[in-house]
Design a protein that fits this description.
By secondary structure, this protein is of the alpha/beta class. The protein folds into three domains: 90 residues, Conserved hypothetical protein from pyrococcus furiosus pfu- 392566-001, ParB domain; 54 residues, no CATH class; 68 residues, no CATH class. It has nine helices and seven strands, in the order ββαββαβαβαααβααα. Helix 1 packs across helix 2 and helix 4 packs across helix 6. The longest helix has 25 residues. It is extended and about 70 Å long.
Length: 225
């Protein structure tokens, strides 16, 4: 595979029909804004189109190509790879999925430094995280509750696919777990204590951890008896 960057007219770059990756509208707008302001972006990965002469098929970078078109660009920086149909499909399934995790301490430091130069409003427009997450991360001065002191803590995402009945059951259980946890204070108590009210995501994360610990403890007791 060659990694030389070449400039290809956008009208000669065609999407792969089996590309499964989709980006939320808000994140796409941030991507578009970033490219327009900085003119920097990761080169697209393409291959010669297997059916259409003088054209290329995008393997990685569909959203970047769309963003470039929408801001009025006519060319895109690309890297051409010589891959067959099967290899292209494997790349489609992996290039947008393989990645590391954000180390909490490093990300907090990064956001803190960014906030010196940019306002929260500007960062919200440029970064994939929402305003609440950015504000929380930039103000971290010590490890969050539940994270180890060595700061080798990572922010993880869990994705579930549930039908209507399952999601109703899960949400009810999470709500009850949050209410019963001594760590989950009601709004009035939070106001009196001066603590910031937790977001729904934070409450859900704490509640699902409580449920998981409860299950593991019960299982341990059963195994020991």
């Amino acid at each position: 595979m060659q990694n030389t960057i070449i400039r290809i007219p956008l009208d000669r770059l065609l999407p792969h029909p089996e590309n499964p990756n989709r980006m939320a509208k808000a994140n796409f707008e941030k991507l578009k804004r970033h490219i327009k302001q900085t003119h920097n972006y990761e080169p697209l990965i393409v291959r010669k189109h297997p059916e259409i002469a003088d054209s290329f098929q995008i393997i990685n970078g569909h959203h970047r190509a769309d963003a470039l078109k929408q801001i009025g660009e006519t060319f895109a920086d690309c890297v051409e790879w010589d891959v067959n149909d099967d290899a292209a499909r494997l790349l489609l399934a992996t290039l947008n999925r393989l990645g590391g995790k954000d180390e909490l301490g490093a990300k907090a430091s990064l956001y803190k430094n960014l906030s010196i130069k940019f306002s929260i409003k500007e960062l919200t427009k440029l970064l994939p995280d929402n305003k609440q997450t950015i504000e929380k991360l930039k103000d971290i001065t010590k490890p969050l509750e539940g994270f180890a002191e060595d700061a080798k803590a990572f922010l993880n995402t869990l994705v579930f696919f549930l039908d209507d009945e399952q999601i109703e059951t899960v949400e009810t259980a999470l709500e009850k777990a949050a209410q019963q946890s001594p760590e989950c204070l009601p709004v009035e108590a939070l106001a009196k204590s001066g603590k910031r009210q937790e977001t729904k995501s934070e409450k859900m994360a704490k509640a699902i951890t409580i449920i998981s610990k409860h299950y593991l403890n019960r299982k341990k007791v059963r195994d020991e008896t």
